[in-house]
C-alpha cells in the first residue's frame, strides 16, 4: 500500500468515525449544558449536571437499572448452560436424528422473534409469567445462535484431548467442564458480550410483557420517560439516554477488541 | 477458569433473586392501560385519580399501567388482547376505533347503558368528540384526553413588528400578511424569526386537517371506508401550506419538526405556532414572554380536527368486571375529576358539565386561554379515521411530505394517495 493510499484510507475512516460519533457528541453536549444551549454551540456555555439530576429524579432509574441487570444476567447464564450442553451433544455424540435436530435448531435463526410475540405472550399468560423478569427472559434462554456458535467451537477441539481425559477416567460432564469449556473461553466471552448488548437494548418484547416499575427494564423505562408531544426537553432526555447506555458504553471501551472479534467470529465460522 | 466459576456463582445468586422477584402479579379486579403524550406530570395525575377512586370504592382494585406513548400503548394492548390477557379498559387514540373493531377486540358501551341516568351521561359529551367515538349507531369510545390544535402567538414579537399584540390572524390571508411582517432576516438574508410554524413531521395529516376543514373539505366519511384526498379543496389547502414556505417565505422550508416546535416558539424562532392544546400548560409554564392563544384562522369557514385519546372497553372479561370498568370511566369523566385533568395538562374537558364547576370557572377566570380550544369545538370535525387507519394515514402523510419537500405537486401527490387508499378501503365498502 502506498503512502497516498494509506492517507486516503485513514482520512475516509476518520470521516466515517466522525459521522458515527456525532450523535453521541451531541448527546453529551446537550446533557451537560443548560437547555438554552441545545442548538447553540458556544464553547463558553456553562457546564451543569442538573440535567442528570433531573432525569434521575423524574423516573425510577435505579430500579430500572436493577431490572435490566438481573434480566441480562439471567439470560446470559441460562444461555451459557443450555447452549453448552446442547452444543456438546451435537458436537461429540452420534445419535439418531442428530442432523435433523440440529437443522431444527438452525432453523430458529431464520425466524424473526417479533412474529412470535403474540404466541409467546399467550404462553406466558398461561404460565402466569406476564409482568415478571423471568417472563421477559424465557423466550431467549434457548438460543439457536448460541448452540450453533459453541458447537462449531467444540468441533475444533482435537479429539485427542477428549480421549486423553477419558483415559484419565473423566466422565462426560467432567470432560466438558475441564476440556471443552476452558478451550472455548474466548467464544463464551464474545457470545456473552453480544448477548448482553442485545438484551440490554431490547425494547419491543419487554414493553409488551411488563406492566410495572418493578419489572420494566431501562429501555422501556426510558421510552416511557421521554414523551414527545410536550415539546422535547432534549437536554434531560439525552442525560437519561447517556445514563442508561453508560454501562454498555464503558463495557464496549473495556472489551472493544473482544466485541469486534466476537462479531467477526460469528460471521466467519 | 476460576473467573468463570465465580461468574457462574454470582449469576446463580442473581437468578435466584430474579425468580423470587418473579412471583405472580397481584390479583387485581381491573387493569387499565394508559398512554401519556404530554409532559411528565400527567402519569402521576392519572395514578392519583385512580387511587382516589379506589379509596372511595374499597372493593374495587384497579391496576393503572402507564404504557408509554400512544404507539406503545396500542401495540401492548393489541398483543395482550390477542394473547388472551386483555385489560378491561385502556385509553388509546380515538382514531384507532376502527382498527380495534376490525380486530374484534372492543365492546360497545351501549350494553352497559341501562338507566336513564346512564343515557344522560352518554349524551353529555361534546358532539365533536363523539364523532370519533361512535359508528354504526353504537358508542365504542368515551372521550378522555382530547385535544384540538390551536394557534399560539408571541405578543412581544407582534408588538416589535408593529402589529397589535392582542389581535391574532383570523383568516388565511391575514396569517400570510402578518407572517410577512413578522418574518425577520439578518444582514445576510438569513431568517432569524419565521412568521409562522406549522409542524409537518411524524403525523402531518393532523394539523393539515385543520387547513382542509377551514377550506370546507371532509377527509373521510363517518363509516371509515371512503376518503376524499383528491378533493380540489384538499389540493388547494395543501397548496396553501406549501406556499407558506415557497411563495410567501414566512415558514421554515421542508419538513418542520413537531417535537421541537414549542421550543422554537419559546426561543423566538417562530412568532406563531400551530400545535395541540395539550401543550397549553407547558407553554404557560415555559414561554419567557407574553403569549396568546387563538382558534386556527378561517378560510371558507373556521375549522380544526379533534384529536387525542378515548377510553375503550375490551372484550374478554366477566360482565361484572366490565360493569365495574364502566363505573370507573363514569367517575373519572365526572366534572371534578375531569377539571383536575384539564388543569394538569390543557386537554379539553370533554363534557360541558366540567366547565360549569367552580374549580374550572375560577381557573378560566385566571387563565381565559384555556377556553379557546373548548370554544373551537363548535367548528371542529372528527380526526381522520378509517379502517386500516395506520396504513391510510401513512399513505396520506407520505403524500403531504412529497408535496412539502417539492418532490411532487399537490394535485399529483393527493391523487396518487387517493388511488392507494381506494385500493385498501374497497374491501370495507
TrEMBL record, chain A:
InterPro entries found in the cross-reference section: MetI-like, MetI-like_sf
Family per similarity comment: Belongs to the binding-protein-dependent transport system permease family.
Bilayer topology: Multi-pass membrane protein
Compartments reported by the entry: Cell membrane
Name of the protein: Carbohydrate ABC transporter permease
CDD domains from the UniProt entry: TM_PBP2
Positions of transmembrane segments: 7-29, 66-88, 100-117, 129-150, 234-255
Amino acid at each position: 500500500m502506498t503512502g497516498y493510499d494509506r492517507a486516503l484510507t485513514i482520512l475516509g475512516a476518520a470521516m466515517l468515525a466522525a459521522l458515527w460519533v456525532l450523535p453521541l457528541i451531541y448527546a453529551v453536549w446537550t446533557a451537560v449544558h443548560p437547555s438554552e444551549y441545545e442548538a447553540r454551540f458556544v464553547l463558553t456555555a456553562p457546564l451543569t449536571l442538573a440535567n442528570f439530576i433531573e432525569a434521575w429524579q423524574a423516573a425510577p432509574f435505579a430500579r430500572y437499572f436493577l431490572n435490566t441487570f438481573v434480566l441480562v444476567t439471567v439470560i446470559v447464564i441460562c444461555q451459557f448452560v443450555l447452549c453448552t450442553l446442547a452444543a456438546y451433544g451435537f458436537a461429540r455424540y452420534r445419535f439418531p436424528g442428530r442432523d435433523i435436530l440440529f437443522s431444527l435448531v438452525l432453523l430458529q435463526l431464520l425466524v424473526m422473534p417479533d412474529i412470535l410475540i403474540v404466541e409467546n405472550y399467550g404462553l406466558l399468560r398461561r404460565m402466569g409469567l406476564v409482568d415478571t423478569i423471568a417472563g421477559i427472559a424465557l423466550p431467549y434462554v434457548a438460543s439457536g445462535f448460541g448452540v450453533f456458535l459453541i458447537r462449531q467451537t467444540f468441533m475444533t477441539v482435537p479429539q485427542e484431548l477428549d480421549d486423553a481425559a477419558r483415559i484419565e477416567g473423566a466422565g462426560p460432564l467432567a470432560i466438558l467442564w475441564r476440556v471443552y469449556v476452558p478451550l472455548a473461553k474466548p467464544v463464551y466471552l464474545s457470545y456473552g458480550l453480544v448477548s448482553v448488548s442485545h438484551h440490554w437494548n431490547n425494547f419491543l418484547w419487554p414493553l409488551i410483557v411488563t406492566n410495572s416499575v418493578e419489572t420494566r427494564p431501562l429501555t422501556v423505562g426510558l421510552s416511557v420517560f421521554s414523551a414527545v408531544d410536550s415539546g422535547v426537553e432534549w437536554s434531560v432526555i439525552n442525560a437519561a439516554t447517556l445514563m442508561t447506555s453508560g454501562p454498555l458504553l464503558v463495557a464496549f471501551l473495556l472489551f472493544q477488541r473482544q466485541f469486534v472479534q466476537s462479531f467477526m467470529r460469528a460471521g466467519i465460522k | 477458569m476460576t473467573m468463570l466459576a465465580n461468574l457462574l456463582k454470582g449469576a446463580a445468586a442473581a437468578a435466584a433473586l430474579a425468580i423470587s422477584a418473579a412471583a405472580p402479579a397481584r390479583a387485581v379486579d381491573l387493569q387499565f392501560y394508559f398512554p401519556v403524550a404530554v409532559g411528565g406530570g400527567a402519569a402521576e395525575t392519572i395514578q392519583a385519580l385512580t387511587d382516589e377512586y379506589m379509596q372511595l370504592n374499597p372493593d374495587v382494585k384497579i391496576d393503572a399501567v402507564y404504557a408509554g406513548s400512544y404507539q406503545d400503548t396500542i401495540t401492548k394492548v393489541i398483543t395482550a388482547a390477542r394473547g388472551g390477557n386483555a385489560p378491561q379498559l385502556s385509553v388509546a387514540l380515538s382514531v384507532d376505533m376502527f382498527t380495534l373493531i376490525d380486530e374484534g377486540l372492543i365492546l360497545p358501551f351501549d350494553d352497559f347503558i341501562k338507566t336513564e341516568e346512564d343515557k344522560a351521561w352518554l349524551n353529555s359529551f361534546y358532539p365533536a368528540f363523539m364523532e370519533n367515538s361512535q359508528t354504526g349507531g353504537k358508542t365504542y369510545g368515551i372521550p378522555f384526553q382530547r385535544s384540538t390544535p390551536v394557534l399560539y402567538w408571541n405578543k412581544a414579537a407582534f408588538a416589535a413588528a408593529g402589529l397589535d399584540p392582542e389581535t391574532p390572524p383570523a383568516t388565511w390571508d391575514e396569517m400570510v400578511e402578518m407572517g410577512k411582517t413578522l418574518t425577520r432576516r439578518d444582514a445576510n438574508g438569513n431568517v432569524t424569526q419565521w412568521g409562522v410554524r406549522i409542524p409537518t413531521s411524524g403525523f402531518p395529516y393532523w394539523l393539515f386537517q385543520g387547513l382542509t376543514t377551514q377550506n370546507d373539505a371532509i377527509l373521510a366519511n363517518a363509516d371509515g371506508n371512503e376518503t376524499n384526498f383528491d378533493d380540489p379543496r384538499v389540493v388547494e389547502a395543501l397548496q396553501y401550506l406549501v406556499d407558506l414556505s415557497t411563495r410567501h417565505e414566512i415558514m421554515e422550508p421542508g419538513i418542520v419538526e413537531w417535537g421541537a416546535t414549542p421550543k422554537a416558539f419559546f426561543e423566538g424562532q417562530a412568532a406563531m405556532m400551530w400545535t395541540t392544546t395539550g401543550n397549553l400548560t407547558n407553554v404557560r409554564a415555559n414561554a419567557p414572554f407574553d403569549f396568546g392563544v387563538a382558534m386556527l384562522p378561517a378560510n371558507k369557514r373556521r375549522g380544526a380536527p379533534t384529536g387525542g385519546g378515548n377510553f375503550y372497553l375490551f372484550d374478554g372479561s366477566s360482565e361484572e368486571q366490565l360493569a365495574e370498568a364502566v363505573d370507573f370511566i363514569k367517575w373519572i369523566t365526572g366534572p371534578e375529576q375531569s377539571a383536575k385533568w384539564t388543569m394538569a395538562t390543557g386537554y379539553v374537558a370533554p363534557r360541558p358539565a366540567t366547565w360549569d364547576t367552580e374549580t374550572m370557572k375560577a381557573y378560566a377566570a385566571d387563565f381565559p386561554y384555556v377556553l379557546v380550544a373548548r370554544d373551537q369545538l363548535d367548528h371542529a370535525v372528527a380526526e381522520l379515521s378509517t379502517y386500516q387507519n395506520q396504513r391510510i394515514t401513512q399513505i396520506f402523510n407520505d403524500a403531504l411530505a412529497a408535496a412539502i419537500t417539492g418532490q411532487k405537486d399537490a394535485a399529483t401527490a393527493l391523487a396518487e394517495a387517493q388511488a392507494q387508499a381506494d385500493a385498501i378501503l374497497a374491501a370495507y365498502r
